[in-house]
Amino acid sequence: MNNIVEKVTERIIKRSLAHRESYLLHMEKARVSGPFRHRQPSSNLAHVLAVCQGGECQALRGGEAPNIGIITSYNDMLSAHHTYEHYPAMIKKAVAAAGGTAQVAAGVPAMCDGVTQGEPGMDLSLISRDVIAMSTVIGLSHNVFDGALLLGICDKIMPGLLMGALQFGHLPMILVPGGPMRSGLSNREKAQAREQFAQGKISKEEMLAVECASYHGAGTCTFYGTANSNQLIAEIMGLHLPGASFVNPDDPLREALTNAASARVCEMTHLGGNYTPLGQVISERSVVNGIVGLLATGGSTNQTMHLVSIARAAGIRINWDDFSELSEVVPFLVRIYPNGPGDINSFQEAGGMAVLISELLAGGFLHNEVMTVAGPGLARYTQSPTLVTGKAQWAAGPGSSLAPEVIASVTQPFSPTGGLKVLSGNLGRAVIKVSALADGAATKIEAPALVFHTQTALEEAFQAGKLDRDHVAVIRFQGPQSTGMPELHKLITPLAVIMGRGYQVAMVTDGRLSGASGKVPAAIHVTPEALCGGLLAKVQDGDLIRIDVGSGSLELLVDKTELAKREYAEAELGEQRYGVGRQIFAALRSDLLGAEEGASSLFTYVREKCKVNFVGDA
Fold first, then answer.
1. What is the reported pLDDT for 395?
2. Contact 242, 394 (CB under 8 A)
3. Greatest distance between any 2 Cα atoms in the chain
4. Which of 496, 525, 573 lies closest to 120, judged by CA?
5. What is the structure's pLDDT at 616?
6. Which one of 29, 69, 98, 181 is CB 3.0 to 4.6 Å from 263, fit for a cystine?
């Protein structure tokens, strides 16, 4: 093992010791002998049996067959989740063939950041992760399941499923992906069209035609954003079957992999000899593997919150220092958009997860000694699935990358360090994605601040020509407790246009950016947020701000005496907390932890609420 990877792992184990021991003790207490449903009184179990039919009913009533719960995020509005429409029937048939039964335990919401980007609904995006976690818990709380299959892919859905599922970590569970859509118009062409539209060079109708050529079928979006980062991390943590992440929805292998997952979860229950509970698959070492996978591929910055929350749900404590120290040694091995011209299908064609995991194992950057849903050892994930007489079978994957311009070798990486960087300074702590910066983009920026409290205000300034200068755009009061921490991906386009005009431009915000964002240097997830006493609330137009990626610093260059005299700016959030249902999430929003703690409301017992600083509320 690489010395730093080993060092960080041991630090996480030590930091987590009391929490992890408590978690595992609770999971052990939850175990029983025999099927869980047989512990229910007859009147309770009768409700479970009310609509079952034939052999399924008989198996549930008296047999020892495992009963598998299905948690699904299906809806038919979103491409990634439309793929799940027929999965329950498919799973029930495959589970029955494996000697078990399956029931849909719950449906969870699956909203799309692409639909809500820049719109009021985006303020509910991050909060939806906690709602998904709670919905998952409610579905499994009937306590009649011996295992579960989790059907979820996109931005907040997969993390929310795991955060909830880990409350039942004594059960075996497998994440079942649906795969990415086939490649359409390239992401680079789409980004260029967006910049042209922002400048009024093409019409709305022309822009819509471009977008529809990019998003054109079933499956996840093809860029390497949060959804595909979720899938990559799930596989490298051993939560998918090997090679399952990026098989297209219309590929016959996709159904075979789903059938294989259905059969496998039956083998993993406590009723057989291969008991593999979720709480043991997600361990300190598998979490480190997830972080390494994120850094080696320049994945979504959202994972600096999602992985923190997933780990915490399993009694494991990680922080941004762990990400930062690992990023100094983990090589950058994958170039797909926004980190390169190709997309996730290009990654799959280059050898995909089997090649990536092989390279990282060979370099000593991944722990092989972990439990996975495929069995012990991550080396199993150097195999690739193929379709043989209608069933998935695994064989050794490619020995090396089939496209070195997409997946590099560990001996000749695209960069010797990872794709994310943690910044610290008097403005707080933040994350910056360096792997996706535009060619030639400055990594040390010192420019005057232009301060905005809303996305709309920045867009209006752009249209009025007020951004045509060197500046650091400060968009504050976008943090978890302010507005639910929306993504500000929509702002990358106008700032990229200004940067293209030759000006030095950067962004600093306590909000988020999409996993697809890049090009413009952006210090995001600033914590503490402006609402909770962060220095962002004292920044004024014209103040010099320095972002230095090399030294990892984020500084407001204003004298301490002057800062001490300043009052904190007041955020008028009333209009941003009402409409499209935002008002009923006030209680959850007020309990959200800071970004580095995972920005979840599910772990608020660990600290007192922040002292808020805003005027009025709707």
1. 96
2. yes
3. 79
4. 573
5. 41
6. 98
Q: How far apart are CA 429 and CA 54, in angstroms?
A: 59
SS3 assignment, position 395 = strand
Q: Are strands 428-433 and 522-527 parallel, antiparallel or unpaired?
A: antiparallel
Quickly tell me which residue has 């962060």 as its tokens.
534
pLDDT confidence tier of residue 6, bands split at 50, 70 and 90: very high
Block residue for tokens 């020892």: 64
Buried b (16+ CB within 10 A) or exposed e, 242-263: bbbbbbbbeeebbbbbbbbbbb
Confidence of residue 516 (pLDDT cuts 50, 70, 90): low
Q: Give the separation between CA 230 and CA 558, rounded to whole angstroms.
A: 39
Determine contact, residues 151/74, Cβ cutoff 8 Å. Answer: yes
> What values do phi and psi take at 145, rounded to 5?
-110, 145
Give the pair of three-digit tokens for residue 36: 């869980």
Can you tell me which residue has the tokens 């008002």? Answer: 583
Bridge-partner residues for 603, per DSSP? none
Rounded Cα gap, residues 192 and 252, in angstroms = 35
**pLDDT tens-digit readout, 103-153:** 999 999 999 888 888 888 899 999 999 999 999 999 999 999 999 999 999
- In the chain, what are the domain boundaries? 3-182+217-396, 420-606
Q: In Å, how far are 207, 231, 270, 576 from 265, measured between CA atoms?
A: 45, 19, 11, 44
Residue with tokens 């495929």: 374
Return all residues near 420 (Cβ < 8 A) that are at least 6 apart.
294, 295, 298, 299, 301, 304, 323, 327, 431, 432, 433, 434, 435
Burial of 502 (0-12, 13-18, 19+ CB in 10 A): exposed
Closest alpha carbon to 249 in 174, 101, 337, 348: 348
CATH H superfamily, domain 420-606: IlvD/EDD C-terminal domain-like (3.50.30.80)
> Would you give the distance in Å from CA 11 to the centre of its chain?
24
- pLDDT band for position 498 (cuts 50, 70, 90): very high
Report the C-alpha gap between 133 and 595 in whole angstroms: 18
Backbone angles phi and psi of 384, in degrees to 5: -120, 145
Secondary structure percentages of the chain, helix, strand, coil, to 5: 45, 15, 40
Q: What sign for the dihedral angle of Cα 27, 30, 34, 38?
A: negative
Distance CA 373, CA 147 (A): 12
- Phi then psi dihedrals of residue 506, to 5 deg: -155, 170
Cα–Cα distance, 336 to 356 (Å, whole number): 13
Mean pLDDT within 413-419: 92
